[in-house]
């Protein structure tokens, strides 16, 4: 008798064959002021609970921290309290009760002087 097989070892798949939401895409970041950045992205799913937005300081940085969670269908965020003339890099991922998507592309902007 062959052994039973469990769920695939894939971070976007959970037990029972259910899949996590598709990743957001088309993330852009633009300076909105000396202390704010405006983010926009494309929501690629209808069944997400929301999106988690992460940020790190610098260009090419890799140490991201979650800065916000937004509700389903939201595709913009104004990130405030930033340091002037500083580069910030962002990424977004969708989530629902099944799991969490892969990350979106990253987008970098520099606040104004």
Automatic annotation (TrEMBL):
SMART domains: FN3 (SM00060). Residues 23-113 form the Fibronectin type-III domain. Residues 1-51 are annotated as: Disordered. The keyword Hydrolase applies. It comes from the Bacteria. Residues 19-32 have a biased composition (Low complexity). InterPro entries: FN3_dom (IPR003961), FN3_sf (IPR036116), Ig-like_fold (IPR013783). Residues 33-43 have a biased composition (Polar residues). Pfam families: fn3. SUPFAM superfamilies: Fibronectin type III (SSF49265). Keywords: Carbohydrate metabolism, Glycosidase, Hydrolase, Polysaccharide degradation. This is Fibronectin type-III domain-containing protein.
């Amino acid at each position: 008798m062959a052994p039973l097989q469990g769920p695939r070892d894939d971070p976007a798949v959970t037990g029972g064959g259910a899949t996590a939401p598709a990743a957001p895409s088309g993330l852009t970041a633009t300076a909105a002021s000396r202390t704010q950045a405006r983010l926009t992205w494309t929501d690629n799913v209808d069944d997400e609970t929301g999106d988690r937005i992460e940020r790190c300081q610098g260009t090419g940085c890799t140490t991201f921290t979650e800065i916000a969670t937004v509700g389903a269908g939201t595709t913009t965020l104004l990130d405030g309290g930033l340091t002037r003339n500083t580069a910030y890099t962002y990424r977004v991922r969708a989530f629902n009760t099944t799991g969490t998507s892969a990350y979106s592309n990253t987008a970098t902007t520099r606040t104004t002087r």
